[in-house]
Design a protein that fits this description.
CATH topology of the largest domain: Aspartate Aminotransferase, domain 2
Shape: globular
Strand content: 15-25%
Number of domains: 2
Domain Aminotransferase class I/classII large: 26-380
Keywords: Aminotransferase, Pyridoxal phosphate, Transferase
CATH class of the largest domain: Alpha Beta
CATH superfamily of the largest domain: Type I PLP-dependent aspartate aminotransferase-like (Major domain)
Organism: Streptomyces neyagawaensis
Radius of gyration: 20 Å
Bound molecules: 4'-deoxy-4'-aminopyridoxal-5'-phosphate, glutamine
Largest sheet: 7 strands, mixed
EC number: 2.6.1.-
GO molecular function, one term: transaminase activity
Length: 384
């Protein structure tokens, strides 16, 4: 393994899902739903397969039906206008979009300011692109992980090329506020930075939280690469259909890298996702309401079991603090948890450069059936 990747080892998701299988534990680690997405969309995939749509290489930018559906969705939800021919790129999930964006936009030595904790592929992809990551730590404040705007400003140097943002935020469940996003946008404009924004949980926001795409802020449309994914919004994480929307020059740069990573992917599924994006608002509303109810079940169970529970405004994850249980090391806690309680969770420290800042935090996924969450809560209660 080369020096760029040596520090990363095996992803925590593979390690923890294997541990769940080996110990027969309830897997609240890796974030994937235990219920597949809509029947009619599965049927759409079957139809595409049967009718011979997408069984051979689809076009490099993605099938026209999906590119059109992505632009229609951005317009309908956010009032953003994109040209499906030059401003949309279909990718093999958001994971490839992140990789291709960083590989296509960074020069070796460029600095990338990223919110910490960060989704694990960010660090590895910045490294593969020869960039340097500069983490800005989100810190708990009144029940929510908050961005310190002075720290963000202080992290930008003459070598900063881009800001890598994620909202709704995995793993903390924070949704960046209008004030935070305004400050990010002002900083990007003032310092002439690109922004790559991972908005894969755009439809999973709860209560009075609102997802505000960075591309809608003043001066941002043409300097922002926005990333979406069908995995999260439609509960088809195995299909690996994601997309990028951005100005033509940025899409072109991302595509330059993407064409040598996978070239194309997920042919028939692209047609099905095009239909999914056109589902009526009632689908998105019901999905959100269902996930909010699951969040409440798990949050109540975790609170009852003695964890400090941070409020999840978005995503399908709950971050907890294990110190009220008399624990301080999330890694050790998560490695022992399957034996102690038959549950798997993720130590947030893996998402930090400043590992000590993440040490007491542990993430649980709630994209599971209510009976599974209730059983997990019962098992966790045995800890205290
Ligand atoms: N970004 C974030 C923040 C995620 O949580 C995930 C999936 N867990 C991804 C990207 C990857 O998405 P995909 O499965 O579409 O590659
Ligand atoms: N995004 C999912 C999570 O954060 C897992 C994705 C993966 O396994 N790479 O749990």
């Amino acid at each position: 393994l080369n020096r760029r990747l040596a520090e990363f080892g095996t992803t925590i998701f593979a390690e923890m899902s294997a541990l769940a299988l080996r110990t027969g534990s309830i897997n609240l680690g890796q974030g994937f739903p235990d219920t597949d997405g809509p029947e009619e969309i599965r049927e759409a995939a079957v139809r595409a397969l049967r009718d011979g749509r997408g069984n051979q290489y689809p076009p490099g930018p993605g099938v026209p039906e999906l590119r059109a559906a992505v632009t229609a969705h951005q317009l309908r939800r956010y009032g953003l206008t994109f040209d499906p021919d030059t401003e949309v790129l279909v990718t093999a999930g958001a994971t490839e979009a992140i990789a291709a964006a960083l590989l296509g936009l960074l020069e070796p030595g460029d600095e990338v300011v990223a919110l910490e904790p960060y989704y694990d592929s960010y660090a590895a992809c910045i490294a593969m692109a020869g960039g340097r990551r500069v983490p800005v730590t989100l810190r708990p404040h009144e029940g929510r992980f908050r961005l310190d705007l002075d720290e963000l400003r202080g992290a930008v140097t003459d070598r900063t090329r881009l800001l890598l943002i994620n909202t709704p935020h995995n793993p903390t469940g924070t949704v960046l506020t209008r004030a935070e996003l305004t400050a990010i946008a002002e900083l990007a404009v003032e310092r002439d930075l690109l922004v790559v924004t991972d908005e894969v949980y755009e439809h999973l926001v709860f209560d009075d939280a609102e997802h505000l795409p960075l591309a809608t802020f003043p001066g941002m449309r043409d300097r922002t690469v926005t990333i979406g994914s069908a995995g999260k919004t439609f509960s088809f994480t195995g299909w690996k259909v994601g997309w990028v929307t951005a100005a033509p020059a940025l899409v072109s740069a991302v595509r330059s890298a993407k064409q040598y990573l996978t070239y194309v992917a997920s042919g028939p599924f692209q047609y099905a996702v095009a239909e999914a994006l056109a589902l009526p608002d009632s689908y998105f509303d019901a999905f959100r309401a269902d996930m909010r109810a699951k969040r409440d079940v798990l949050a109540a169970g975790l609170t009852d079991a003695g964890f400090e529970v941070f409020r999840t405004a978005g995503t399908y994850f709950i971050t907890t603090d294990i110190r009220p249980l008399g624990e301080t090391d999330g890694f050790a806690f998560c490695r022992a948890l399957p034996e102690r309680a038959g549950v798997v969770a993720i130590p947030n420290a893996v998402f930090y450069d400043h590992r000590e800042a993440g040490a007491p935090f542990v993430r649980f996924a709630f994209c599971k059936r209510a009976d599974v969450l209730e059983e997990a809560a019962k098992r966790l209660k045995s800890l205290s």
